[in-house]
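Hi there,

I know you've been waiting on this one. I reran it after we fixed the sequence typo, so this is the corrected version. Both the input and the resulting structure follow.
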Amino acid sequence: MFTGLVETVGKVVKRQSAGSGIKFTVSAGKLNEEINIGDSVNINGACQTVVHKSGGEFSFDTVEETLKKTTLGDLQPGSPVNLELSLTPSKKMGGHFVLGHVDTTGRISAVRKLTLSYEVEISFSSEYQKFIVPVGSIAIDGISLTIAEILPDGLKVAIIPHTWENTNLSEKHAGSLVNLEFDILGKYIERQLRLSGKTGITNEWLKEAGF
């Protein structure tokens, strides 16, 4: 489990075919000292298992299912990646519960630089709209962000300068694909409501429930 607070931006140094999967090697700098073989590491929002470690680099195998649901298959040597190590009992919970289980990919439709921040609009399949609420949480490429506005075909988030400068968001532009993980709490609530015959999470239901 993760919090969505990116610890560093690593760089892909090697990509090798492994059957129908891919073995990646990533440079993690000083963060590599805390990584051990078998650890889970959040790579652009996708939880991957470390299988090899050498110097300031570590390797992981990305399987077919992950390639199907995420943007990891697009990574090439030189690609920047957001990195976060898994939670420990003493780690501050500064973001929200992020599992590293990507639901789908979205496409950035607009990036706007404002006076003190950036606005980013992301479009995605309408089937996932039921999982988002205004000022709710979402993980975008593994970054815990707050939904500023729900759009007809997606959502808008506001990015503070620190996040922009310390993640790979500064490399993104209109047309870029990103990994999306919707809030696990919202997904559980939506499923329970649906199984009980309700239509799902709505603003009206949230108000009635005291949110």
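Quick highlight: The mean pLDDT is 91.

Best,
R. S.
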